[in-house]
Automatic annotation (TrEMBL):
Designated name of the protein: CAAX prenyl protease 2/Lysostaphin resistance protein A-like domain-containing protein
Bilayer-spanning residue ranges: 12-31, 37-56, 76-97, 117-141, 148-169, 175-193
Alphabetic keyword roster: Membrane, Transmembrane, Transmembrane helix
Membrane as UniProt keyword: yes
A GO biological-process term: CAAX-box protein maturation
GO MF annotations in UniProt: endopeptidase activity
Length: 222
């Protein structure tokens, strides 16, 4: 975890600004609603924070990519099954206990070309970057006052809530993503931290991608 941290506090502010700018490009509806513009927005969503991170600290960015192992990949796949199972149960409970119906994810209700799917998985990597950026910034701040374990727990929870809240524009509701996406995000973050001996964003991206793939496939038949 230490290799991921910046040497200067102001760098976290710059990185979070870049993340916010990237998020703005993908969520802003004022751009032309064309297929090519969607691809551009997805690319910028990932590229802006990634390039910024590399400029701020190449060492920190490269530390995100710990070498994958078969054991780590197995943990990522197993994590997907466990996280999806927990999410499914939570979703059923939520659905039957309320009359609320959120707007479905557009991916499950539209026809997407093959390159669109590639860019969707590319976008999921950007969502990992977004979450980890907040995770590190919050951890760096909280760890000034608390120990490692407490700091990582607080940072994981807060970054998961931010991740879930960022899906407001997708589902047209804040309650829905906060209740149904916070738990999966905590699972992805756990995989990021624990699947390999050191934090690995590829591990959490694999889990995130598999989780969303299952959700999209099942959602397209419902």
């Amino acid at each position: 975890m230490e290799k991921l941290l910046f040497d200067k506090g102001y760098k976290y502010i710059i990185l979070l600004f870049a993340v916010a700018l990237g998020f703005f490009t993908i969520s802003y509806t004022g751009f032309p609603q064309t297929e090519s513009m969607t691809l551009v927005k997805q690319f910028l969503f990932v590229a802006i924070p990634v390039v910024t991170w590399l400029i701020l600290s190449k060492k920190s960015f490269l530390a995100l990519f710990h070498t994958l192992t078969l054991k780590g990949i197995f943990k990522a796949v197993l994590g997907t099954i466990i996280i999806y199972g927990a999410s499914f149960i939570l979703g059923v409970i939520y659905q039957f206990s309320t009359n609320f119906s959120a707007r479905p994810n557009p991916i499950t209700t539209s026809s997407i070309p093959w390159y669109g799917w590639i860019m969707n998985y590319f976008q999921l990597f950007g969502e990992e970057i977004l979450t980890v950026a907040f995770l590190l910034a919050i951890f760096a701040l909280v760890s000034k006052f608390l120990g490692y374990r407490a700091s990582i727990i607080i940072a994981s929870i807060l970054s998961a809530l931010i991740f879930a809240a960022a899906h407001y524009w997708t589902y047209g509701s804040l309650i829905h993503p906060l209740l149904l996406l916070t738990i999966p995000r905590l699972g992805f973050t756990f995989i990021f931290l624990k699947a390999e001996k050191k934090p690995s964003i590829v591990s959490s991206w694999i889990t995130h991608s598999l989780f969303d793939s299952i959700s999209f496939i099942i959602g397209s038949f419902l």
